[in-house]
Write a structure and sequence with these properties.
- The complex is a heterodimer of chains A (464) and B (416).
- Chain A is an alpha+beta fold and 464 residues long.
- Helix content of chain A is 35%, strand content 22%.
- Chain A contains 16 helices and 18 strands.
- In chain A, the strands form four sheets. Chain A has a seven-stranded antiparallel beta sheet with strand order 15-12-14-13-17-18-16, sandwiched between helices.
- In chain A, helix 1 runs antiparallel to helix 3 and helix 14 runs parallel beside helix 15.
- Chain A is globular.
- Helix content of chain B is 49%, strand content 6%.
- Chain B is built from 19 helices and seven strands.
- The longest helix of chain B has 20 residues.
- The chains are: A alpha+beta (464), B alpha/beta (416).
Chain lengths: 464, 416
């Protein structure tokens, strides 16, 4: 059907139709190729968005919301015939109330922009996905994004007090509020977090904010084996020290950032451990020394302590750009990189990593392994040669195997990237292994209640 | 993908490294300026680059209109600074413009008539608006050291600003279609460009001519002498390169070089970042045996000649001096030594473009980009907002605090 006049009537020049304009909206940061949208709408207000959604609902047009377009599972591209709704113009920070510890923001605000703004108040919003430069509040809420500071501050769901969203039929709804506590019926704010735009399109969020730590220092340690690094982190946490950031990178990752950022490492290194300690000015030095001493007990190649902000920032940016920079390590131009994301309880990490390595060997997979060791989150950047069907299938089997390893160790098939189009089968598997297939049915019935026509981000998380 | 056509292969080499993370889009100045339409953002341009390659590979031609996306790229390289994989989205646009200009794979709807007009006029008059002679008027009562092998080479950049601001207004008045038709007509009859040459912004002309005189004063006060070519001075060909007319640029750059060599020139003192970048990074690739020494005027000033000021300043750093060929006496170094400098949000290698490169082809985009940047500069609340490039000045000149660097430096010269 021709929806152009209807959309134009509501949104005027905020609608794009030409084929060339659709091209960028068929991709996000995943390897999933989305379908060409019938149109892209970039509304300016919640009322406009509401009218657009009402129009689409009445005319059975599928809708997919797009924030920064940085999804790693294909959740921000279209699966079928429909429109993309970009939230780029919802980019205002509306209110910051330090004494009440919240910021009211529109959903298209990018996380780095939010934190730059909050730094004026000596506060910050802790969830810190590697894509924080580009990802938006709405996108990070819809995938319950985690990030580097997860070891200390948890994930997005721990920092959201309320949401304004538009339901598929165009109704504008408010959930939660400005208070740190609330016990008022079902927690619909929590329901929307991680729903990947399948239940409603978020337009505003009330986010909890926190005072910036007085001082942060870093301990870098280099290991020949990952088991020692894993045990070292467990020991540090066991003694009551909670690093703000606890990351690890393998050798391929280190070679990638050596090439792109000129960051060196000791030659025998197979794994690097990065621990950031946030503390007071008075106690930081003592804590850094304690951590360095504890690490030394696990036979590292070397340990380095730094409080140099520019050096720390350079490494932090390198870590955040790792997904992209790892492509520099490909062996041929037909190779691409797909990113995997699993999580296990931190105590299960050493055993899990050992199995991941064994699985890589049995599937003849080349991958960079890195992640958030502080919260048990492992990423595998897997090289896949698109010119070989056999190799592509092998990578797909390996991806599934990774999910199964995480489930075997009481983990989950997705830590922070969501399910999207990528892990629908694995999600089913997760609940099957928990002997709880009813959980999937419960999710589907919630979806059907809120979106009976299945128009919002169809084909993501599960098929109805 | 591999291609026999070297330009397509270069696009493939660059765009093929992209993983579509979107970091570049977050800093691309044209993306918010065009209402967040992704084909006007750095990531969208790389996506179009990859699509272009697939289409050529499968069908041998492109049926869609890509030119607005690639031509509106400011080539400011902000994208490259933040790309974790080192992808230069600006380079993808630059190469794609060359593919469009060659018309081997694109249909005529992608042709930019204004670009064609500029190319045609430049090749005929060695000046993009046919006003080469008029570009020497600022110096008519000044005395230079005739015969000196060191040449003060303006590249006509300061002098063209009053014409380009005026042309921008004319284009707005004519509307998109009519100005394209007008430009198409002139590209076939370049001598008619003289009509455009009649229109200029007089206030801007006066300011730019004073700036050139200020630069001469600054150089002379540092004890430097030089010659000037007057009405013989050629435009360096910046537009030819930027608009993707590589073959024409190659021929033109060699003409300019031969002209300078015939005059016995060995050394050039240049006064704007665009000419400096072109002569130091593009000429050596296109002119075999290019052996002219190229100096940036700030680098040869005697800094002991300046007095300090209590004035608070902020600085709009030109993209090409922070991310392109760097100089020793950078504007930020000079200003931090001489004034109370506070840099704005987005500075140093992360400076944000003024929008200037879009002025002629996409005036509305240029205006929005410059407005966004001006607000960042204004929010510093400094007494002076300093620009260090004639194009940046022409675009950011939105309040009385805005001043070009030569103007400020001249006011800081010691009296004796």
């Amino acid at each position: 059907m021709d929806i152009s006049s209807g959309l134009r009537r509501i949104s005027g020049n905020n609608v794009l139709f030409s084929k060339e304009e659709m091209i960028p909206y068929t991709r996000d940061a995943s390897e999933h190729q989305g379908d060409f949208p019938l149109a892209v709408v970039i509304p300016e207000s919640v009322q406009e968005l509401s009218q657009i959604m009402k129009y689409c609902y009445e005319n059975d047009v599928q809708m997919t919301a797009r924030g920064g377009g940085s999804s790693l599972t294909g959740s921000s591209v279209l699966n079928g015939n429909g429109v993309i709704i970009s939230l780029s113009k919802f980019n205002k920070i509306l209110e910051v109330k330090v004494e009440d510890r919240y910021a009211l923001v529109e959903s298209g605000v990018r996380l780095d922009d939010l934190n730059e703004f909050l730094s004026k108040y000596d506060h910050f919003y802790p969830p810190d996905p590697a894509s924080s430069r580009v990802c938006t509040v709405g996108g990070s809420l819809s995938t319950n994004a985690g990030g580097l500071r997860g070891a200390m501050y948890g994930v997005t769901k721990d920092w959201v007090l309320g949401i304004e969203a538009v339901l598929p039929n165009g109704e504008i709804v408010q959930m939660g509020g400005m208070t740190l506590k609330r016990s008022a019926g079902y927690d619909l704010t929590a329901l929307l977090i991680g729903s990947e735009g399948t239940l409603g399109i978020m337009t505003k969020a009330i986010l909890k904010i926190w005072p910036k730590p007085e001082k942060v220092g870093r301990v870098l340690s280099y290991f020949e084996d990952i088991e020692s690094a894993g045990k070292a982190v467990a020991s540090i946490k066991g003694k009551g020290i909670n690093p703000q950031v606890a990351e690890f990178m393998d050798r391929i990752s280190l070679e990638s950032i050596r090439l792109t950022k000129e960051i060196e490492f000791p030659e025998k290194t197979n794994y690097m451990l990065l621990l950031d300690i946030a503390s007071t000015k008075e106690s930081l030095e003592r804590q850094l020394k304690e951590v360095a001493t504890m690490l030394s007990e696990f036979h590292p190649i070397s340990v380095k302590v730094t409080t140099d902000e520019s050096e720390m920032q350079k490494m932090y940016e390198a870590r955040k750009g790792l997904y992209s920079s790892i492509l520099s390590q490909r062996k041929s131009t037909s190779e691409r990189v797909v990113l995997s994301d699993i999580v296990v309880p931190t105590s299960e990490l050493p055993a899990t990593l050992k199995e991941v390595k064994e699985s890589m060997e049995s599937f003849a997979i080349r991958a960079a392994i890195f992640g958030h060791i502080g919260d048990g989150n492992i990423h595998a950047n897997i090289f896949v040669d698109l010119s070989s069907k056999e190799k592509v299938e092998s990578v797909e089997r390996f991806q599934k195997e990774l999910g199964m390893i995480s489930l075997k160790h009481a983990g989950s098939v997705s830590a922070e990237h969501g399910i999207g189009m990528e892990k629908k089968d694995l999600l089913k598997e997760e609940f099957r292994l928990k002997n709880s297939p009813g959980t999937m049915e419960l999710m589907k019935s919630i979806k059907t209640t809120i979106d009976p026509k299945n128009l919002l981000n169809r084909g993501k998380i599960f098929d109805v | 993908m591999t291609f026999e056509d070297p330009i397509l292969q270069l696009i493939s080499d660059e765009a093929g490294k992209c993983i579509n993370c979107g970091f570049c889009e977050s800093v691309c100045p044209t993306f918010p300026a065009v209402g967040f339409n992704s084909i006007y953002g750095a990531r969208g341009r790389v996506d179009l680059g990859n699509y272009l390659l697939r289409e050529i590979s499968e069908k041998g031609k492109i049926e869609l209109r890509f030119s607005d996306s690639f031509y509106s790229c400011l080539s400011c390289n902000a994208c490259l600074q933040v790309c974790p994989a080192g992808v230069n989205a600006g380079r993808v646009s630059e190469l794609s413009r060359t593919v469009i200009a060659n018309l081997d794979y694109f249909n005529e709807q992608n042709e930019q008539q204004i670009a064609k007009m500029i190319v045609s006029v430049t090749m005929k008059y060695m000046n993009p608006l046919g006003v080469r002679e008029k570009c020497s008027k600022w110096a008519q009562d000044l005395h230079f050291e005739d015969g000196s092998r060191t040449l003060f080479y303006t590249g006509n950049m300061f002098q063209l600003m009053p014409y380009s601001t005026s042309l921008g207004r004319m284009k707005k008045l004519l509307g998109k279609k009519l100005s394209q038709r007008f430009a198409g007509f002139i590209s076939k009859h370049p001598s008619l460009i003289k009509v455009a040459g009649l229109s200029l912004d007089k206030k801007m002309k006066s300011y730019m001519e004073t700036e050139l005189r200020n630069i001469v004063t600054l150089l002379e006060s540092s004890g430097i002498s030089f010659s000037y070519l007057g009405k013989d001075e050629p435009y360096p060909g910046t537009f030819l390169y930027d608009l993707g007319y590589e073959k024409e640029f190659s021929e033109y750059a060699n003409r300019v070089y031969s002209l300078l060599k015939a005059k016995g020139i060995e050394r050039l003192i240049v006064a704007d970042p665009h000419t400096y970048d072109l002569l130091t990074s593009k000429y050596p690739k296109y002119v075999r045996g290019f052996d002219l020494e190229v100096l940036y005027y700030l680098d040869i000033l005697d800094t002991k000649k300046f007095k300090k000021s209590d004035a608070s300043t902020t600085l709009h750093e030109p993209c090409l001096l922070t991310r392109g060929g760097k100089i020793n006496n950078s504007p930020s170094r000079l200003l931090s030594n001489l004034t109370n400098l506070e840099l704005p949000k987005m500075s140093g290698e992360n400076t944000s473009c003024c929008g200037g490169p879009d002025e002629l082809l996409y005036g509305e985009i240029a205006e929005k980009v410059s407005q966004n940047r001006f607000l960042q500069l204004k929010s510093v609340n400094a007494q002076k907002i300093v620009t260090a490039c004639p194009i940046c000045f022409a675009n950011l000149n939105k309040s009385e605090e805005v001043i070009e660097l030569p103007n400020l430096l001249t006011s800081l010269l010691n009296e004796n």
